[in-house]
């Protein structure tokens, strides 16, 4: 089956004008999103992940400047497939034809992304009424359907509620319902569960997954939580200092990580088995992008850095058809450098646990249950 | 922890109610008891609104408690206290806050922020001694001495949190309350701060009350854990007891919701749901029952019996 490309970002670079100079927040990002797939972008704050998706939506703040790149978006317009560069659109065209209608976004904080003066029924119907001129009755019926889809009980009476009457988890469900109202092809979720509790987080993620199964939309997740990535993503992009440093399928990135930054991220999360005295942490702080970066921006924090890392930024090395990483460790001349022993151990353990579950329909809820089963 | 040791902090039947209007009172904390022993880390977990932050703030006397009894270092710290007790409390118990930007005065240098406790309690000594103490503590938390004359806005989030820790440490406390101290930080920085906190604990034998909602971090750092929901302490015990044998359905749902960084498994995992309204439980009717050792669960006799019978667990939680 040939996968259909929905969104293709090439060589995107963005800089912000600030009082202390030009900050290059995104430096040459390439991304591909296929139909029905889930893509995750992982990185620390300031790595440029939010800026990248904001550019897709055309909601970059005013001091942001796109220096280079294209965002090719393939969509159906009047029954015809067209591919257009979203960066050529004017703000007005974006609002009218793309935002909400084709690409919708769910923001981190459900408290600030809902209008407190409008009841939730009207907020859900607004998009349909404007983009498709849906008659009011039809829109109302669809809004009800959506509320049920996102798992809100007693939908009819909820339609006239205002956001402050709902809990955080409920509000995020409403935001998702609004995003889905105009049948978008792409849903962008910017840290959709960071502001929510663990129990609700799991529910929201499961909800987005089930909707994806039903409607076949493509989803982009932005997160710094690798647990979330493991749960939802097909494809993972690890971002650092405005560049993608490792990209691959979720299994490739979790089981065969190649970039030292990915190693650090995986080790920094205490696994439920971690009993070590110390967590492996990445030393230092993320770089300040106000200054021109020479060499690999990760080099000062990288215990595996080679001499060349301080002089020349590494290109993307191909590992497999889908797996790439930007580190000189993969160059032919580089010394052989396996991931840290602790990480290897952890991966081995994960693989062992997986064996039982690969290809079977069984599910589990507890780690201990899992251990007992082994 | 052994029973022979004396707790450094002991909280008994703590109640903290907030009167919203004449008719409506929020019972943020409703009868919570726990002990913290010297040199250990007690983790408090629960969802937002469960009262975990309120407990931290009540313990350090930022609120006047509604009811209950708290003793710290063998002195009663509930109700009216003498000036000596208050001074002891203000120096020996310290707090680290969630948002490192909001909790540092932007108009003061790092030196003055860290030394403020010393100044207030007249422990600073000469100007030189004061400076030496601050620099020593700065280096202890992994910041260089040049930072002393800078302002908080010149630091990154992780560095600011280190300053917050330094400010707490300089008073040589016996107990530090860390209220979501790492939740606002990036994953790689979180690990650095947790390591720092553990190192300090080893050196100074300080106890932590670690308040957080990230269970995997709590499991990693805590010796004992208390699970809170709607102002009630539902289950408490050592970390192993809670994670290996969770009894209360709420604890179970919390643990089942922790995401694991393992893609194959994670895609197979289902989390349990728990809803107080439909669970048929009434927290105020229950009593804390001891299961074994230090493991205690809140519930009526009937509930506990049901939970102890493993076969019935699924039915109790309400999942099929």
Task: Write a structural description.
- The complex is a heterodimer of chains A (374) and B (320).
- Chain A has 374 residues and is α/β, with parallel strands linked by helices.
- Chain A contains 12 helices and 12 strands.
- In chain A, the strands form 2 sheets. Chain A has an 8-stranded mixed sheet with strand order 6-7-8-3-9-10-12-11, sandwiched between helices. In chain A, strands 2-1-4-5 form a 4-stranded antiparallel sheet, with helices on one face.
- In chain A, α4 packs across α6.
- Chain B is of the alpha/beta class and 320 residues long.
- Chain B folds into 2 domains: 236 residues, 3-Layer(aba) Sandwich (Rossmann fold); 74 residues, no CATH class.
- An 8-stranded mixed sheet of chain B has the order 6-7-8-3-9-10-12-11, with helices on both faces. Chain B has a 4-stranded antiparallel sheet with strand order 2-1-4-5, covered by helices on one side.
- Chain B is globular, with a radius of gyration of 21 Å.
- Chains A and B meet through α7, α8, α9, α10 and α11 of A and α5, α6, α7, α9 and α10 of B.
Taken together, the total number of domains of chain B comes to: 2
Strand content of chain A: 15-25%
Gross CATH architecture of the largest domain in chain B: 3-Layer(aba) Sandwich
Q: Mean pLDDT of chain B, rounded to whole units?
A: 86
Main CATH class of the largest domain in chain B: Alpha Beta
What's the mean pLDDT score of chain A? 87
E-strand count of chain B: 12
User: How are the strands ordered across the major sheet of chain A?
Assistant: 6-7-8-3-9-10-12-11
Q: Over all CA atoms, what is the radius of gyration of chain A?
A: 22 Å
Structural class of chain A: alpha/beta
Low-confidence stretches of chain A: none
At the fourth CATH level, what is the homologous superfamily of the largest domain in chain B? P-loop containing nucleotide triphosphate hydrolases
How many distinct beta strands of chain A? 12
Classify the fold: give the CATH topology of the largest domain in chain B.
Rossmann fold
- Element-by-element helix/strand order of chain A: EEEHEEHEHHHHEHEHEEHHEEHH
Strand content of chain B: 15-25%
The percent range for helix content of chain B is 25-40%
Number of helices of chain B: 13
> Which structural class matches the secondary elements of chain B?
alpha/beta
Major sheet attributes of chain B: 8 strands, mixed
């Amino acid at each position: 089956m040939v996968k259909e490309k929905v969104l293709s970002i090439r060589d995107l670079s963005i800089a912000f004008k600030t009082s202390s100079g030009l900050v290059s927040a995104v430096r040459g990002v390439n991304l591909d999103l296929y139909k029905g797939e889930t893509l995750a972008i992982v990185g620390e704050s300031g790595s440029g992940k939010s800026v990248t998706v904001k550019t897709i939506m055309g909601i970059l703040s005013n001091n942001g400047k796109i220096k280079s790149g294209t965002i090719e978006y393939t969509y159906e317009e009047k029954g015809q497939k067209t591919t257009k560069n979203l960066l050529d659109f004017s703000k007005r065209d974006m609002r009218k034809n793309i935002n909400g209608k084709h690409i919708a976004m769910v923001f981190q904080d459900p408290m600030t992304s809902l209008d407190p003066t409008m009841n939730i029924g009207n907020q859900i119907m607004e998009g349909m009424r404007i983009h498709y001129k849906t008659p009011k009755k039809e829109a109302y019926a669809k809004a009800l359907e959506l509320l049920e889809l996102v798992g809100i009980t007693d939908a009819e009476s909820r339609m006239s509620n205002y956001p402050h009457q709902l809990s955080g988890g409920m509000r995020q469900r409403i935001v998702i319902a609004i995003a889905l109202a105009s049948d978008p092809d792409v849903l962008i979720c910017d840290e959709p569960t960071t502001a929510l509790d663990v129990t609700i987080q799991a529910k929201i993620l499961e909800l987005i997954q089930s909707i994806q199964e039903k409607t076949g939309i493509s989803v982009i997740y932005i997160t710094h939580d690798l647990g979330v990535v493991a749960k939802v993503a097909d494809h993972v992009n690890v971002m650092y200092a405005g560049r993608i440093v490792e990209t691959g399928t979720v299994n490739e990135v979790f089981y065969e990580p190649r970039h030292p930054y990915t190693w650090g991220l995986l080790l920094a999360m205490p696994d439920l088995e971690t009993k070590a005295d110390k967590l492996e942490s990445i030393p230092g702080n993320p770089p300040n992008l106000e200054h021109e970066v020479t060499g690999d921006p990760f080099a000062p924090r990288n215990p595996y850095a080679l001499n060349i890392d301080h002089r020349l930024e590494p290109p993307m090395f191909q590992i497999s058809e889908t797996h790439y990483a930007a580190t000189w460790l993969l160059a032919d001349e580089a010394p052989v450098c396996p991931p840290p022993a602790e990480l290897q151990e952890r991966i081995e353990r994960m693989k062992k646990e997986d064996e039982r579950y690969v290809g079977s329909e069984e599910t589990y809820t507890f780690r201990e249950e899992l251990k007992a089963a082994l | 922890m052994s029973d022979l040791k004396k707790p450094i902090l002991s909280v008994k039947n703590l109640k903290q109610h907030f009167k919203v209007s004449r008719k409506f009172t929020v019972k943020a904390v409703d009868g919570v008891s726990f002990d913290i022993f010297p040199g250990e880390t007690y983790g408090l977990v629960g969802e937002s609104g469960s009262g975990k932050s309120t407990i931290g703030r009540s313990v350090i006397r930022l609120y006047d408690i509604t009811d209950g009894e708290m003793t710290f270092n063998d002195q009663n710290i509930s109700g009216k206290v003498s000036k000596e007790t208050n001074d002891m409390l203000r120096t020996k118990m310290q707090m680290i806050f969630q948002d490192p930007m909001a909790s540092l005065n932007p108009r003061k240098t790092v030196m003055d922020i860290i030394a403020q406790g010393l100044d207030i309690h007249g422990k600073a000594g000469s100007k030189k001694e004061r400076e030496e103490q601050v620099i020593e503590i700065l280096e202890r938390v992994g910041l260089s001495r040049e930072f002393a004359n800078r302002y908080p806005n010149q630091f990154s989030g992780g560095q600011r949190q280190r300053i917050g820790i330094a400010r707490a440490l300089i008073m040589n406390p016996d107990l530090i309350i860390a209220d979501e101290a790492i939740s606002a930080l990036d994953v790689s920085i979180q690990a650095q701060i947790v390591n720092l906190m553990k190192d300090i604990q080893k050196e100074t034998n300080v106890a932590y009350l670690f308040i957080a909602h990230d269970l995997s971090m709590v499991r990693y750092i805590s010796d004992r854990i208390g699970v809170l929901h709607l102002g009630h302490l539902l289950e408490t015990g050592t970390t192993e007891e809670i994670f290996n044998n969770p009894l209360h359905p709420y604890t179970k749902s919390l643990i089942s919701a922790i995401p694991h960084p393992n893609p194959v498994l994670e895609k197979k995992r289902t989390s349990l749901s728990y809803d107080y309204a439909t669970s048929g439980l009434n927290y105020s009717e229950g009593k804390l029952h001891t299961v074994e050792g230090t493991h205690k669960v809140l519930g009526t006799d009937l509930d506990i019996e049901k939970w102890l019978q493993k076969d019935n667990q699924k039915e109790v939680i309400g999942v099929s």
